[in-house]
Amino acid sequence: MSRSYETNLSRALSTFELVAACPGEQRKILVLLNPKSGPGRGRETFQKRIHPILSEAERPYEVHITKCPNYAREFVRTRDIYQWSGLLMVGGDGIVFEVVNGLFQRPDWEKALKELPLGVIPCGSGNGLAKSIAYAKQEPYDYNPLLVSALSVVKFKKAQMDLVRVETRSQILFSFLSVGWGLLADIDIESERLRAIGGQRFTVWTIARLIGLRTYKGKVSYLPCDKLPSVDSLGNGKTYNEYAKETQISHSRSCGDDLDRYSRISESKSFHDALDGDPAILDGSFDSYDDNEIISENITLETEAERRQRLDSFYSATSAKSTYFSTGSISSYHSIEDPNNGDVDPENNSEVMYGPSSRLPALTSEVPNSWTQIEGEFIMVHAAYQSHLGQDYFFAPRAKLADGIIWLMIVKAGITRANLLQFLLGLSNGTHVTRSGVDMIPVKAFRIEPEGTNGYITVDGEKVDYGPLQAEIFPSLASVMSP
Ligand SMILES: Nc1ncnc2c1ncn2[C@@H]1O[C@H](COP(=O)(O)OP(=O)(O)OP(=O)(O)O)[C@@H](O)[C@H]1O
C-alpha cells in the first residue's frame, strides 16, 4: 500500500499501451451512473476523471444515468445485456446491490454472471466493494481511489467474487458485502440524514450511537466452517461450478413457493412511472433535472450519432464536448431507456428471483443440530464477506473476494463502553477483531432471529424487513473487473 503515485501512473500508462496493443473486446461497457450517490458529484467525477482514462485506453462505453431508485435494477433485469462486455456502476454500494439483484431476476442469471464482470467507480458514501477489490489486489486505493478503480476497468481482468443468498420473511436477495443487525446497521440507516457530508456521516453517527447505546434481544445461529483454510490459500476458493457439483446446487426460481407463506413483494412503481412520464424526458432531454448541465450537452451530441476521430489530447478541461468522444469507437450517453432498443418483456414478472437453490432449512424450521446457537442480548451481529464495508471500515481483515467464507461478528451486551469505543476506533485498521467481548467466526451460513419489532437489519447497507433472516454463501458466483 505504500507504492508511490508516480509508480501507479507509470503502471497506468503502460496499461494503456498494453490495451492499445491488444484491442480484444470490442463491445462497449455499460455504465450505470447514479447522479445522487454520496455527495452527488458522480456525473462530474465521471466526466472529468474517468472518461479521459477510458478514452485514452480505448475502452468504449455507454452511459445510462439512473433516474430513480431501482432504475439500475430494472435496467439490467429487462435489457439485452449481452450487447455490453461488462457492467460498470458509478456510485456506491447501493447501486451495485441493485444491479446484482436485477441480474438474479433474470432466468439467464447464470450466463449473465458468468459473462459480465461487475465494476465500480466509487462515488458513494460507503464504497466498500471498490475498496475491497483494490485491497484484494494490493492496489494503493487510498491515494487515488478513482484512478485505481478506473484501472480495473481499463485492464478488465476478471476476478471471482462470492455472493450470499439472503432470505427474509418476504424477500430473497443476493448480497456481495454484508448483513447487519444492531449497532452498525443502525449507524448505516440512521446516518442517511447526513448524506450531504459524504463518508463522514458514519463517523458522526457512530459517536451519537455510542452515547445512546441500544441492545437487542434475539437468537443467532450459524454453521461454522469445517476447517479454515490457511492464510496463504484463502484466496483460492473453489469455483461456483466445482462447488455446485460437490454440493448438488441446483438452479432455483424463488417466488410462489416458500415465500408465499409470507407477504408478497411489491413491485417498484417508480421505474415504470419514469418510463410512462413526460415524452420530453423519454427522448433523452434532461430538462427536468436541475443538475444535468454536464451530461445534457452530451446527450444531444450522442443522438446525432456522429463518429469522430480520436482526440489528440489526453483531456481538455476547456472542452467538455470533446471529452465524450473517445477513440475510434463511440462512447455514448442515455438518460433513460430507449423503448425500441433491447428485449424488454413487459409481461415478465419482476417479483421472481432466480439463482442457486438454497441448501438451508426453511426459515420457519429449526436449524440443524450441527449449527451453533446463541440466545441473549446483543449490541450487534454483523456478517461480512469482503474485507471492507466502506473505505474506512476494515471489517473482515482475512476476507478475500472468493474464499467461500462469511465472517460473522458477534458483540454481546455486557461489553464495556471502553472496549466498545476501542472496537469502533479499531474498525479503520482491523484491530477491532482483537477486542475482548468481540467474536469473529468464519461460517458458511447463519440465521438471525430478533425479538420485537424495533430495529434495523441491513443487507449491503440497504434496509430489509426487521425479522428473521438467514443467509448462505455461494463461492465465486460472480466476477468483478480487477486491475
Ligand atoms: N436518480 C436517482 N435519484 C435518487 N436515488 C437514486 C437515483 N439513482 C439511484 N438511486 C438510489 O440511490 C441509492 C444509493 O446509491 P449509491 O449506493 O450509489 O450511493 P450511496 O448510498 O451514497 O453509497 P453507499 O451505498 O456506498 O453508501 C441506491 O440504492 C439507489 O436506489
TrEMBL record:
<dbReference type="GO" id="GO:0005737">
    <property type="term" value="C:cytoplasm"/>
</dbReference>
<dbReference type="InterPro" id="IPR017438">
    <property type="entry name" value="ATP-NAD_kinase_N"/>
</dbReference>
<feature type="domain" description="DAGKc">
    <location>
        <begin position="24"/>
        <end position="170"/>
    </location>
</feature>
<dbReference type="GO" id="GO:0012505">
    <property type="term" value="C:endomembrane system"/>
</dbReference>
<dbReference type="GO" id="GO:0005524">
    <property type="term" value="F:ATP binding"/>
</dbReference>
<dbReference type="Pfam" id="PF00781">
    <property type="entry name" value="DAGK_cat"/>
</dbReference>
<dbReference type="GO" id="GO:0046512">
    <property type="term" value="P:sphingosine biosynthetic process"/>
</dbReference>
<keyword id="KW-0067">ATP-binding</keyword>
<keyword id="KW-0808">Transferase</keyword>
<keyword id="KW-0472">Membrane</keyword>
<dbReference type="GO" id="GO:0016020">
    <property type="term" value="C:membrane"/>
</dbReference>
<dbReference type="Pfam" id="PF19279">
    <property type="entry name" value="YegS_C"/>
</dbReference>
<dbReference type="InterPro" id="IPR050187">
    <property type="entry name" value="Lipid_Phosphate_FormReg"/>
</dbReference>
<keyword id="KW-0418">Kinase</keyword>
<dbReference type="InterPro" id="IPR001206">
    <property type="entry name" value="Diacylglycerol_kinase_cat_dom"/>
</dbReference>
<dbReference type="InterPro" id="IPR045540">
    <property type="entry name" value="YegS/DAGK_C"/>
</dbReference>
<dbReference type="GO" id="GO:0042981">
    <property type="term" value="P:regulation of apoptotic process"/>
</dbReference>
<keyword id="KW-0547">Nucleotide-binding</keyword>
<protein>
    <recommendedName>
        <fullName>sphingosine kinase</fullName>
        <ecNumber>2.7.1.91</ecNumber>
    </recommendedName>
</protein>
<dbReference type="GO" id="GO:0008481">
    <property type="term" value="F:sphingosine kinase activity"/>
</dbReference>
<dbReference type="InterPro" id="IPR016064">
    <property type="entry name" value="NAD/diacylglycerol_kinase_sf"/>
</dbReference>
